[in-house]
Amino acid sequence: MSEILDVIIIGGGQSGLACGYYLRRNKLNYLILDKQEKCGGAWLNTWDSLTLFSPAEHSSLPGWLMPKSKNRFPLKQEVIDYLCQYELHYQLPMERNVNVDTVISENMFFKVSTSKGIYFAKTIIAAIGTWNNPFIPKIKGIDTFKGIQIHSANYKNAEQFRNLKVLVVGEGNSAAQIVAEVSKVTTVKWSTRKPPQYLPDEVDGFYLFNVASAKYNAEKQGIPFNAANYNLGNIVMVPLVQEARSRGV
Would the pLDDT of 211 be above 60? Predict the structure, then answer.
C-alpha cells in the first residue's frame, strides 16, 4: 500500500487553501488534489467582470491579508493573484491537473482513485464547490431552441450577445450582474419567479458574512435569530448593479 496521508483535500480553491493552512499549522501530513492546471480555483472560470462582494481587508484567507485594491471590491485577477501567492507563501502541497474518480472506504482508510494514480488517507475534505455542476432545469422547448443557451457558470462577457435579444433567468446575484453588463450592448429581458430583492447600497459581503455566522451560531444553540430583515440571498449592490439601476435597467 502507498503512503497513508493524514488528510487529502479535494479542491484547490479558497476553501481548500484555507483548510491547508490549518493542517500545515498543526503539522499534519496532507495533500491537496486540484483538477485545474494552474492556481486560482474556480475564479479561473468566472466571467471577466466578476468581483468580490467585500473589500480586500474583509476577504482574506487565514494567516495572510489580501493586498488592498484600488477598487472598492477586488477584481477577478486580483483574487486569482492573491490565491496563487497564498499557496506559494505557505508552500501548500498541491497536485494539479488531477481528476478524482472515486473515494471508497478500504481497511479503515480512504482509497482515492484519480487520473494520476491512487492515494490513501485517514480523512477526506471535499472542497470542490459547485461551479462544475451547474443546474439547468428541464423546460419545454429547451431542446429545440436554436439560439445560444448557456449557464452563468459559462458566461464570460457581453460581447457574444451584442445586438442579440437576450433573456436572463433567475433572481440571484449572478443574474443581476449579467443583466447589468449585457444591457450595455443589447436588449435584455429578466425573468424571475418572484421580484428581485436588493440589499441597501452600504451592505456588502463582510456584513453578510457576520450575519450568516451569527445565524449559524444561534441555530446551533436553538436561539431564534433576526437578521434585521436582511435576507442573505438578496442581491448585493456592487458598482456594476448600481450603475445599471442608474440607467433604469
Answer: yes
